[in-house]
Specification:
116 residues, mainly alpha, 5 helices
């Protein structure tokens, strides 16, 4: 089993442990996520690629690994997965840039809270 598989399996084991303590919460979570990731207006593969991008943006390793596997199981190829990575990188860079031009420039111009 690869390190990636081990981390995803460890997550699944911990969810199973949570289910023994909070079965209603865990089952509700599984029902909710199952409904969210089912084919609908967006197909399941596209939803997994979106989740991968969000996992990367959130810096969530297990989520990232899990959704790479799920995207592959739903038929995503390596190029599609890497394009999702590129989109996440664009959003991450855009996030920093948008905050820089909005908040930081405002602070530099004396319109924001003073840090010193």
């Amino acid at each position: 089993m690869s390190e990636m598989d081990n981390k995803v399996q460890a997550y699944k084991n911990e969810i199973a442990e949570l289910e023994s303590t909070l079965p209603d919460v865990t089952q509700a979570y599984h029902a909710f996520t199952g409904a969210c990731f089912a084919d609908g207006a967006l197909d399941a593969k596209t939803k997994q690629l979106i989740a991968l991008g969000i996992g990367l943006f959130a810096n969530n390793e297990v989520c990232t690994l899990y959704h790479v596997n799920e995207a592959r199981h739903k038929g995503a190829g390596d190029a599609e997965i890497m394009e999702a990575v590129a989109v996440a990188a664009a959003i991450g860079g855009g996030h920093a840039l948008s905050q820089g031009v909005m908040r930081v420039q405002k602070a530099l111009n004396g319109n924001g809270a003073h840090l010193s």
